[in-house]
Design a protein that fits this description.
heterodimer; A: about 450 residues; alpha+beta; Immunoglobulin-like; 2 domains; 12 helices; B: about 325 residues; mainly alpha; ABC transporter involved in vitamin B12 uptake, BtuC; two-stranded antiparallel ribbon; 2 strands
Chain lengths: ~450, ~325
Amino acid sequence: MHHVSGRWRHLAAAALVVAAGALGLLVAQPATADSPITSGSNCVANETTGCLQGKVVDDNRNPVPGAKVTVTAPSGASDDATTGKDGTFFFAVTEEGAFKVDLDPSSLPDGVTPKVASLTVQVQLSNITPAGFALNGHIKGSVSHGTGPVPFYQLVWQQFSQGLLLGLLLALAAIGLSLIYGTTGLSNFAHSEQITLGGFLAYVFAVQLGVPLVLTAVIVIALTSLSGYLQDKLIWGPLRKRGLGLTQLMVVTIGLSLALEYVFQLIFGARVYPVATDLELNTGPLNITPAAYWSMLVSIVVLALVGFALLFTRFGRATRAVADNRALAAASGIDVERIIRIVWIVATGLAGLSGVLYALVNGGVYWLTGAQLLLLVFAAVTLGGIGTAFGALVGSLIIGVVANMSTLFIPQDLKYATGLVILIVVLLVRPQGILGRRERVG
Amino acid sequence: MDIGFYFNHLFTDFGSTILSVITASYIIAAIGLNIHFGFTGLLNIGQAGFMLIGAYGFAITVKYTQNFWLGVVVALVAAVLFALALGLPTLKLRGDYLAIVTIAAAEILRLIGDNQLLAPITGGTFGIPGSVFAKPFAALSPFPQTGLFQIGPYNYPFSEGDSWWLRIVAWSLVAICVGISFLLVRSPWGRVLRGIREDEDAVRSLGKNVTMYKTQSLVIGGLFGALAGIVNVLATSVSADSMGRTLTFELYTCLLLGGAATVFGPVLGTFLYWVMLVFLRDTIGFWSPPGLLSQQQIPQITWILVGIGLMLLVIFRPQGILGNKKELAFGD
C-alpha cells in the first residue's frame, strides 16, 4: 500500500468527493402524466416535475378545508383540487412558466371571502412554488391568535427562539470543526461544504425520492460520514504522512471548498431547493414551526450523545488525550491515526445533519448555504475557545441568539455581520475564548 | 477550417487577456498578498476585501465630488484603517486568527455592499456603474476623449471605460508596484519581515517589535489591494459580489503558481493563471460535444479545476515556478 504513488490517490479522492455530490444527477424521474397538471394530496418535485402548492387560511390563519382551487397552465390545460383538512392543495406540473391559480369563492364556507381570488405564479421544474390564499373573516370554530401589530416583546421572544434554533444547528457543525482542529490542528475551510452536501442529499432523498424525513436524516448522516471517512483516508491522512505544514493543509481545504462549491453549482445550479414539502404555521411556546421543534430536539439529543461520548467513553477519553498532547497520547498506546479518522467521520456526519436540519427550517438549500454559515461557525468556535468541544457548543448558542436578536435593530441580511463583531471583540478581550485555556494562544 | 478558427480565436483571447486591465489588477493585488503571505507569512484570506474597500472608497468619493485624486486618497486611507482594524486584535495571536478574521471581514464588507439599506450610496446588489465615477479619470487622458483605436484585432476606446489610456496606466502601475516590492523586500525592513516568517521568536529576541512589523506589512499589502480595486473597477463597475472569497482564492492560486516570496512570482503566476483559464474556457467551449454543456457550465467547470489546481499546487509544488523550496511561506 505504502508504495503506491500518493499522487493518484489524491486524484482518486477528488473524484470520489465529486462522485458523492453527483448523486443528484442519478435520480431523475420520468414524467408520469400526459397532462402538464396533476392534482394530488402531496407533490414530489424532481427534474421533470415542479410543485405548485399552498394553503387556504382565514384571517385567524386557521386552515380552510373544502375550498376549490383551479390551476391553469400557460398552454391552457387546467386541473382543480379541493383543499384537505389542513387547508392545503397540491399540484404536480410538468411545464414551466406563468400559471394562473384561481380560488372558487362559491366553494368557501359561510363567513369567509377571498382577499384575492386569482394569482399568477412563475413555476419552475424541480422546485416548489407556493401559492397561498388568505381570506377575510373566519370560519366556524376558528381559533383567534390575536390581531393587530405584534408587540415588541413578542418579536424579541421570536428572535430569541429562532436564535436558539440557529445556535443548535451551528453547534452541530461547530463541534465537528472544533474536534478536527483539536486533534489535527487543521482549520478546515471545507467544513462548510459538508453542511451544503447534507442539505442537498436531504433534498435528493426527501423530495426527489420521497423518502420519509427521519430515514432521510439517517441516510444523509451515513453518506456524509462516509465522505468524511473517504476524505481522511484519501486526502488528509496521506497528507499528514507526507508532513505537510498546517498552513499548507489549510490552503488545500480552501481549494477543496472552492472546487466543491462549483461541483454543487454544476449539478444543482444556483436555485434554492426546499426540503420541507408541507407548509407549516408557527405554534407553541417558542412560536416556531413543528419542524423547527423537531430540529431542536434532534440537535439537543445528538449534541448530548456527543458530549456523553467525549466525557465517558474510551473513544472520548482518547480523543481528548490526542487533542491535549498528541505525542504523549501516541506514547501511551493510543492509535492516534485511528482516533483522527473517527473524528473526521463524526465531524462530517454532524455537519451533514446540521445541513439537513438547516435546509428543513430555513426554506431550503443552495450551493452557498454552507459558505454562508461558515463565518458564524468559525466565530462560534473561536468564541468558545478553538479546539474545545464544549466551548463550541456555548459559542454557537451565543452566536445564534445574538445574530438573530441583532435583526431587531439591523437589516436581516446583515445578521451574519454580527458574528464578526462578536469575533473581533472576543479576540480583543479574551483571545482564548470562553472555555479555552490561556496557554493555547501563541 | 474549424481548427484554424479555434487557434485564431484562442490566440486573440490570449492577447486580450495579457493586455487586460483585470489581469493588471490581479497582479497588483497579488503583489500585496505576496507582501502579506510570501514575505511576512501572514495568512490574509481577505485580500478581495481590501480591493472592495478601495473600490468603494474611490467610487463613492468620486461619485459625489468628481475629484479623481481625492477618490484615490480616500480609497488608500480606508484600506489603512481596514488593515489596522483587522490587524490590531489578531496580529499578536496565532496565524489562524488573522485568517478567520480577514475572510470574515471581507465577507462582511460584501454583505454591507449588497445591503439594500445603503443602496442610495453603494447601489446595493446592482453596484455602482462605471459611468458614475470613471469620467474624471478619462479627463486626465492625453488622448482624444471619444472614439476607438484599433491595433490588430484589439479595438478599444481611447480614454473612456475599458480604454487604451486605462491599460497604459494600469500596466505602468504594475511596473511601479513590482519595483516598489523589489525595493521593499531587499531593504532592511524586508529582511526583518522574512525573519518574522522564518522564526518570529528569534526576531523578537533581537529586540524587534514583531507586532509592529506585521502591522506595517498588513497595511502596505492592503494598500496594493486597494490600488488593485481602483484599477479593477475603472475598467468595469463596482459590484460587491465580484469581489468575494473566490477572488481571494484566485489571487492565492496566481501567487502560489508563480512562486510566493519572489518578486516576479505574482506577475508570472497571474499571466499563467489567466492564460490557462482562457485556454480551458475556449477549449472546453469549442471541443465539448454540442448540447452537452450549457454556457453557464463552462465557467463552473473551470472553477472546479481552479480549486483542484490550487490543492495540487500546494501539495506538490508549494514553492511555485520561481520559488525556492528553502524560502517557503508555509510555516507550521
